[in-house]
Automatic annotation (TrEMBL):
Binds 1 [4Fe-4S] cluster. The cluster is coordinated with 3 cysteines and an exchangeable S-adenosyl-L-methionine. HAMAP family: QueE. This is 7-carboxy-7-deazaguanine synthase. InterPro entries: 7-CO-7-deazaguanine_synth-like (IPR024924), Aldolase_TIM (IPR013785), rSAM (IPR007197), rSAM_sf (IPR058240). GO terms for biological process: tRNA queuosine(34) biosynthetic process. It comes from Muribaculum gordoncarteri. Catalyzes the complex heterocyclic radical-mediated conversion of 6-carboxy-5,6,7,8-tetrahydropterin (CPH4) to 7-carboxy-7-deazaguanine (CDG), a step common to the biosynthetic pathways of all 7-deazapurine-containing compounds. It catalyses: 6-carboxy-5,6,7,8-tetrahydropterin + H(+) = 7-carboxy-7-carbaguanine + NH4(+). Pathway: Purine metabolism; 7-cyano-7-deazaguanine biosynthesis. It is an enzyme of class 4 (lyase). Residues 17-193 form the Radical SAM core domain. PANTHER family: 7-CARBOXY-7-DEAZAGUANINE SYNTHASE (PTHR42836:SF1).
């Protein structure tokens, strides 16, 4: 059984896959308490793998995004195999504090050790390194992580004026460090889930 917060269909709102239709499989629970977390993931429903796959099959998209909470606390080889057998491409959004099962097609690593205690990453290679940027944290401290893509995502503080300042600083950082690209939260701009 897996504790699932929700399964829904939308577009990927962040990172290099922004705009791609995706099925979101949100697990309940996280090992961290990030001050900017914008997702309610504390409660969930126990679901069998068959129940999850039945729900996933309702949607036409080929991309499934494993998210949370922190999905690395819950996923296993069985769910990876079932999704692949259903013809799905698997992406995961993880804080990197736990190892991942083999076979995930796209790993987005978003380290949170700038914001939380006991958040040291154990993953040193990913497809996408996403840093939540608030203007006072230094993305270069993650230069040791091998990543195909590096993205800076301005931290959403809930304060419009502060958000504008952080976004401007993130843009300036990307222009000064072109190995980084700016990632805006497209789903918030479009007001979709």
């Amino acid at each position: 059984m897996y504790l699932i917060n929700e399964i829904f269909y939308s577009i990927q709102g962040e990172g290099v896959n922004a705009g791609v239709p995706a099925i979101f499989l949100r697990f309940s629970g996280c090992n961290l308490k990030c001050p900017f977390c914008d997702t309610s993931h504390q409660t969930g429903n126990p679901m069998s793998l068959d129940d999850i796959m039945h729900e996933v099959s309702r949607y036409n998209a080929s991309l499934v995004v494993l998210t949370g909470g922190e999905p690395s606390l819950f996923i296993d080889d069985a769910i990876v195999e079932a999704l692949h057998n259903a013809g799905k491409t698997i992406a995961i959004e993880t804080n990197g504090t736990h190892p991942l099962p083999a076979g995930i097609d796209h790993v987005t690593l978003s380290p949170k050790d700038d914001f939380c205690d006991n958040a040291q990453t154990v993953i040193e290679h990913c497809d996408e390194l996403k840093i939540v940027y608030r203007g006072d944290n230094d993305p270069s401290r993650y230069n040791h992580i091998k990543a195909s893509h590096r993205v800076l995502q301005p931290c959403d503080t809930g304060d419009d004026e502060q958000n504008r300042r952080i976004t401007s600083e993130a843009l300036d950082y990307c222009l000064s460090h072109p190995q980084w690209r700016l990632s805006l939260q497209l789903h918030k701009i479009l007001n979709v889930r």
